[in-house]
Amino acid sequence: MIPVKSERDLRIMRQSCAIAATVLDRLCQLAQEGVSTWDLDQAAKKLMAEHSCRSACYNYKNGRLRFPSYACISVNDEVIHGIGRKDRILKSGDIVSFDISTVYQGFVGDNTRTVLIGNVAPEVQNLVSATDQALRAGIAQARAGNRVGDISAAIQKHIEAHGYGIVREFTGHGVGRSLHEEPQIPNYGKAGTGPVLKPGMTLAIEPMVNMGVEDIFVGDDGWTVYTADGKPSCHIEHTVLVTHDEPEILTLPIKE
Ligand code: MF3
Ligand code: CO
């Protein structure tokens, strides 16, 4: 069953998502040459506390492992689930993704952005803008009466037009009372297939796109996912509400 949120649920979801977006925005500003991913993770921890929420990924369980970081911070060939490290210092030419998921009053907001550090090679900049456009194309399909496969197919079409590799092992997902709810939202698929979308569904749509091959592996820490060919990867995500009308992006920062 795909949860449909009530008006009350949505009031809290909107707040959780706005907080997740505000924390993400701040981290993107702090991401500069010379800063360690550990310091950025500590900043995420502090910002979440200041907004009276907690991280949905800190202590997240995978078998006997627990995720040790407050944000997922993934640099270059790290696809997702990177862990903050004191010896990982950002340098010019890097791309870094922050995946921020917050729990606020029992509801989860989930969003990710990839930012450029200093001078990034044009072909890597293209990867980032194509991933962003693929996400926009996917979001445009998140309409009542459409199916999950419409979102997937729109993303796939956009990514494959550039010849990039689509990560298959991880997907977007429903989000709300838990970080991962039904449905799974793969970044590839067939239009007109899968569950029908209804107003009140909240979906985390998140293309993970490799500049080279689609193949990935999990590193020795048991979490960090890397591209098999060592080429860069990009990840961008929004939490979106299906409405009677246009899709509504919930993960937009609080205006201050
Ligand atoms: N936002 C990520 C997701 O959509 C959160 C991963 S939490 C982790 O799955 F602990 F697995 F890193
Ligand atoms: Co997600």
Overview of the molecule:
- The protein has helices spanning 7-30, 37-50, 122-140, 148-161; strands at residues 54-55, 61-62, 65-66, 72-75, 78-80, 95-104, 107-116, 165-166, 172-174, 181-185, 202-205, 208-210, 216-218, 225-227, 233-235, 238-241, 248-249.
- The protein has 256 residues and is of the alpha+beta class.
- It has one domain (7-249): Creatine Amidinohydrolase.
- Strands 10-9-11-16-17 form a five-stranded antiparallel β-sheet. Strands 1, 4, 6 and 7 form a four-stranded antiparallel β-sheet that branches.
- β6 and β7 (107-116) form a beta hairpin.
- 49% of the residues are buried.
- 2-amino-4-trifluoromethylsulfanyl-butyric acid (MF3) binds at residues 57, 60, 67, 72, 81, 99, 101, 110, 204.
SS content category: alpha+beta
Quantity of strands, as a count:
17
- Total helix count? 4
Low-confidence stretches: none
* CATH level-3 fold name: Creatine Amidinohydrolase
The CATH first-level class comes to Alpha Beta
Average pLDDT: 98
Main sheet strand line-up: 10-9-11-16-17
Bound ligands: 2-amino-4-trifluoromethylsulfanyl-butyric acid, cobalt (II) ion
By CATH's scheme, which homologous superfamily applies? Creatinase/methionine aminopeptidase superfamily
Question: Which value, in Å, is the CA radius of gyration?
Answer: 17 Å
Q: How big a fraction of the residues is strand? A: 25-35%
Shape field: globular
Distance between the termini: 37 Å
Q: Percent of residues in helical segments?
A: 25-40%
Largest sheet: 5 strands, antiparallel
CATH architecture: Alpha-Beta Complex
What is the count of structural domains?
1
